[in-house]
Design goal:
alpha/beta; 3 domains; 11 strands; two-stranded antiparallel sheet; 21 helices; Rossmann fold
Length: 510
Amino acid sequence: MNIQQAKDYIKQTVSLYLTKGEFGEYVIPVVRQRPVFLLGAPGVGKTAVMEQIAQELGIALVSYSMTHHTRQSAIGLPFIKHEEYNGLEYDVTEYTMSEIIASIYETMKETGIKEGILFLDEINCVSETLAPSMLQFLQYKVFGRHQVPEGWVIVTAGNPPEFNKAVREFDVAVMDRLKIMNVEADYRVWKEYAFENSVHPAIISFLDLKHEYFYLIENTVNGRSYVTARGWEDLSEILKLYEDSEMPVDDTLIDQYIRNDTVVKEFAAYYELYNKYKRDYNVAGILTGEAGDEVISRASAASFDERLSLLSMLMDRVIADVRQDLNDADHLKELNPLLKQLKAKSLPAPGLNGTGDSADNDVLAAMLDITDKLRGDLKALKKASALSRENERIKRSCIKFFEEAYKEGLKADDPFEAARERYNSLIASVKEDSLRIRDEMSNLFDFASKAYKDGNEMLILVTEMTVNPYTSKFIARHGCDAYMKYKDEMMIDERNTALKEEIEQLVGEI
């Protein structure tokens, strides 16, 4: 299965394990809650998936790599305890709480979240001293004498032995206590993740043309070469920093993340071309409707790879703007109820002759309280690994809003009115951006229709705008006549239906 399918199954499993009966007890007893074992090649996204599941279910996540754990750190350290029974005194060996179990209790204490996932990576690489304890742990959820708290589901992961020399093959007794899921790399699924996490558009565009380079592990005369999803994502982050600093990108940099000579050379050449196209075609000009006949003619006569690269650059620019606009709108939505709290503080209590100064002080104090609560919520959610990048940005934006509103409020005659004006200014800005982005989208379709006519490029454009979660949400909210026109002309829904029917027919013939 691919990583998206694995995510869906794990999410279902966790939800079922956390289902409670009429008396508040967990329906599936702990001893019957088989831990999930996610088995897949390195870098396919196993850890990222666990973070997504925790965020979507609103539960905590505690992650540990088992490769560095000894029996003592996982089970706990021994100490001598004095006991007495029927007049007989004796010393016994006890164990301190496992570092892993203690981390769960610490997370619950700091976040207030009582349910979660204990994710143990590299579970099949445990040390020789720890291996005998794994059978007890996997069935009874116990490390030493300390049990994993109720409401915490265990998910494990590991690499097949061909990818990791440290792997210890589990025997049947252990395997029979696990829900085993074999995961394989799938570019189509990763591409959705890449869009959501703003992976560099040059990488997505390159892999659209070279699917086979998404994930590779090969044995060569110079040793093992490899290309992984993790490598592409890490390369994406460093590329952005290099570009921001105007530092040159070369093969040596790419080779630090992509360990395959052929892929390194091809991506380096493509990246150079990508930047050349970006300069030559004036992407910003196309999206503002200023594409001249010369640019349109050049795009029309270009090779298929160049046409796709240009289309990818244009779509990425629009998608990035759409995503920012939606995030800004979500930021305003989160601010709205908080501002209502401020408004209540700005009004004198019923039946009292409150002064303006006291109401202003109440508003300023409320701003500080709201800011402190937002900071506390952010810290707790980050500790629980239950916060997506986008939600973190929204919360940080809210904190920044109230920090700046407080500074303005100290100087303003009416602190609440100053905050409201700031909020209304943000609303006006978002509305203006939404109109601009809708025009960008229309200009993109207009350019594509002139340069590519009704070719495959237009079909790709309409399809991407349809399946991308950000653009589809934006169009549903703000509309786009150009999109609707070409969507109807190209009959995307009908093509998708026909394709599904063809696939079903082929499956039925097997």
